[in-house]
Amino acid sequence: MIDVVALGELLIDFTQIRSNDDSVRRFEQNPGGAPANVLAVLSKFGVKCAFIGKVGNDVFGEFLRKQLLDLSIDCRNLVSDPNHNTTLAFVTLDDKGDRSFSFYRNHGADTCLSEEEINLELIKNSKVFHFGTLSMTHEPSLSATLKAVEYAKSCGKVISFDPNYRALLWDNVDNAISAMKSGLEYANIAKLSLEEAQMVTGKTLPEDCLRELLKYDLGIVAITMGPQGCVYATDKYMGSFPEYPANVVDTTGAGDTFWGTLIFGFLNNGADFDGISEERLSEIVLMANIAAAMSTEKKGAIPSIPDFARVRAAFEEINGK
Question: For the Carbohydrate kinase PfkB domain, which residue ranges apply (predicted)?
């Protein structure tokens, strides 16, 4: 049985690297795409995962497939498109390691996944279905995403949602907010950035955002805030953690590492967020906060995922266990 199935974008991140010649920008190829990044974390931590998506029948698509297979991620529903190229993202970094994106995605293969190409058996035989909004920016992947999430909901699967807002990929902000709200209507657990939470709720303070988000009948909701750490809540508990100290090189994928680690903890709790104790929830979120910070110390999203043993050791040091 597959533990977690994710649907969405799988692309190449060309991440800027330092050069001795300031007049020349150099980039290195890394696998990317938020849903795939979350699965990479989970698989590296020993969780059985499968990916649903589409890449081009090109060298980039072949590279991405190999990267997922090397992580033991089930790729039987990773479709190769002979007519559209793999999506590319160029990631430039400032002195603090914060990112700016440029996308080459007009008719990118990931947006061309159709309803007919989804293997529903993968979803049926899973515990958690994970998705975001970038597969909802264009047709036919919008209809494919809605079909998959509606099927997962009808099968009683836990729905995990991460909006992963990227302004450049939307026609306008209203469509993006509408898609985020739609995703939250399906979700049991959700992770948002503070910007996303503020967009959806119209609130400013993180705690106020949490209260509004819980109105979507979420079992668990978390908001990541970069250097300000994170906040989280259920209908019973609310908590927060400051940023875990790290030597930041590249923040790409930090939110995905947080989310993958949180889902990992959730699965280890028997996939039960209704009966979770305040102490156990706090432990799970702290572990996610630590892993996310550690992931910023290397470049790229998947290459920067920390070993779980290192995350666990830091957690135990904090808790004195």
Answer: 1-306
| Averaged confidence pLDDT in the chain | 93
User: Which strands make up the sheet holding 238-241, listed edge to edge?
Assistant: 74-81, 49-56, 4-7, 128-131, 158-161, 189-193, 220-224, 230-233, 238-241
Choice between 319 and 80, residue whose per-residue pLDDT is larger: 80
Pick from 6, 115, 112: which is nearest to 55 by CA?
112
Exposure of 113 by Cβ count < 10 A (0-12 exposed, 13-18 middle, 19+ buried)? buried
**pTM as predicted:** 0.94
At 106 the pLDDT is 87
Task: Confirm if 87 and 105 have CB atoms less than 8 A apart.
Answer: yes
Can you list the domains of the chain with their CATH numbers? 1-113+121-129+153-164 (3.40.1190.20), 188-320 (3.40.1190.20)
Pair type for strands 128-131 and 158-161: parallel
- What strands lie across the sheet with 88-93, from one edge to the other? 26-32, 11-17, 88-93, 99-104
Q: What is the pLDDT of residues 225-266, one digit of tens each?
A: 988 999 999 999 999 999 999 999 888 899 999 999 999 999
Amino acid at 52: I
How far apart are the C-alpha atoms of 100 and 106, rounded to whole Å? 19
Nearest to 28 by CA among 298, 295, 212: 298
